[in-house]
Amino acid sequence: MQLGLVGLGRMGGNMRERLRSAGHEVVGLDHNAQISDVTTVAGLAEKLESPRVVWVMVPAGVTDATIDELAEVLGEGDIIIDGGNSRFSDDAPRAERLNKRGIGYLDVGVSGGVWGRQNGYGLMVGGAQEHVDRLMPIFNALKPEGEFGFVHAGPVGAGHYSKMVHNGIEYGLMHAYAEGYELMAASELVTNVPGVIKSWREGTVVRSWLLDLLDRALDEDPELADLSGYTEDTGEGRWTVDEAVRLAVPLNVITASLFARFASRQDDSPAMKAVSALRQQFGGHAVHKS
């Protein structure tokens, strides 16, 4: 099958190679001319045979502009896929704009990171069944082998919504592992923390790929001495918490893990300074001066 792919970064570039190795023809476009197959959106459209399919893998901030530019050179019967980490609420307006031109739209949450080329990508798809059916050869090539790793989650927006929740869960899982690591590192009893992490990888109820990656990180740097605790968030954790508030669903763990990332960016917490000041005021407790 033939596919246009816009955005050949860490995810998109590996997706192109996985698809090509499965026998599909992929025409890639990227701002980096050294890895791009064509130089313009118009040139990409010209390389594809109708009805055309173009998969967009660009940062969320430029997704709408990219899709609108594609809409100018695509037409009736073509399909655009957004596989980036877009907010789910952006999908329905996009689909409506494209539908007026006769262009189909699918939103696909993609998980797998830099390991996806080797292991396959988890795909969560939103959109019309007819469009999903047409793209199944592509989805089957990208997903891991076997019965898992793909879902048609629902109508337009469902793919990105599912990926948003996936990433919220990821926040919680990572933070639980991180807290366990810190507690053992602080303990007087555990003298081989990396070894404990490694022992959990088989036969335990907490084994997972994230745990495997933590073990790999500790192999490279047993005390994580080369890393800063400053941790960014991509936005999907925030959107997950926003939805929890809207729907009155108590996401205690995910919300706490998101706020922990905010705390990681403070060299000296203003809130904790206020707590220290209050303890001194009401109880005369000792404080540490900066």
State the major sheet.
Answer: 7 strands, mixed
Topology as a string of helices (H) and strands (E):
EHEHEHEHEHEHEHHHHHH
**Quaternary structure:** single chain
Strand order of the largest sheet: 2-1-3-4-5-6-7
Highest-level CATH class of the largest domain: Alpha Beta
* Structural shape: elongated
Distance between the termini: 63 Å
Count of separate DSSP helical elements: 12
The pLDDT mean sits at 94
Give the helix level as a range of percent. Answer: 40-55%
The appropriate CATH architecture of the largest domain is 3-Layer(aba) Sandwich
Instruction: Enumerate the spans where pLDDT stays under 50 for 5 or more consecutive residues.
Output: none
The whole-angstrom Rg is 23 Å
Given helix and strand content, the structural type is alpha/beta
Beta content comes to: 5-15%
The CATH homologous superfamily of the largest domain: NAD(P)-binding Rossmann-like Domain
Number of domains: 2
Find the count of extended strands (DSSP E, 2+ residues).
7
What is the fold named in CATH at topology level of the largest domain?
Answer: Rossmann fold
